[in-house]
Amino acid sequence: MDNPKSYCKAVRHLDALNVHRIYHDTAYGFPINTDNELFERLMLEINQAGLSWTTILNKQNNFKQAYHQFDIETVAQYTQTDINRLLNNAGIIRNKLKINAAIENAKTILVLQSQFGSFKNWLDNHHPKTKDEWVKIFKKIFKFTGGEIVNEFLMSIGYLPCPHDEDCPVREQIVAQNPSWNQV
């Protein structure tokens, strides 16, 4: 993609079946309420670090299969055999640090679930925060989470202000779902 002023403008004229158009129109900025989906989005953002978002979107289904549909309990119990399986899976990003981050982050989410009832409840309990405040919290408890990863994760799930242009029709759909950023 060229250097448009926004993601909305970048995808506006793309084919309806383009991975960016699908993500923009159906996922980016929409609230997510289930912990496994939140975990999936966090892990996709982590895996994107240093790579293009196009690569991640094209591999999203492969990630889901490789990581057992991002079932938090299953990923938290991964062993060296699972790590080896993932390192040999050409359909995903084969980065040992990112794979280990998935396992450790799944374990962290299990702890948050035991303390707050769900990962979503933990997020709600800390909302609202600025991007910088969120980054500090994430860096303390999660692996492989820097400023850009945390920012994109929280924007993409509706905790930081809507990433869509004011004139983007998708923005109206998101606002209708009353995302967290709209509740402050």
| Radius of gyration computed on alpha carbons | 16 Å
Low confidence ranges:
none
Assign a percent range to the helix content.
55-70%
Number of beta-strand segments: 0
Name of the top-level CATH class: Mainly Alpha
Gap between N and C termini: 34 Å
How confident overall, as mean pLDDT?
96
Q: Would you kindly provide a written description of the structure presented here, covering whatever features stand out?
A:
- The protein is an all-alpha fold.
- The chain has a single domain, classed as Orthogonal Bundle (Endonuclease III, domain 1), CATH 1.10.340.30.
- The protein is built from 11 helices and no strands.
- Helix 3 runs antiparallel to helix 7, helix 7 crosses helix 8 and helix 9 crosses helix 10.
- It is globular and about 50 Å long.
- The N and C termini lie far apart (34 Å).
- The relative contact order is 0.15.
- The mean pLDDT is 96.
Quickly list its features.
mainly alpha; 61% helix; 11 helices; 184 residues; Endonuclease III, domain 1
Q: SSE layout and pairings?
A:
Layout: H1 7-11, H2 19-26, H3 35-48, H4 53-66, H5 72-76, H6 80-87, H7 96-116, H8 119-126, H9 131-141, H10 147-156, H11 169-176
What is the compact description of this entry?
The chain is mainly alpha-helical and 184 residues long.
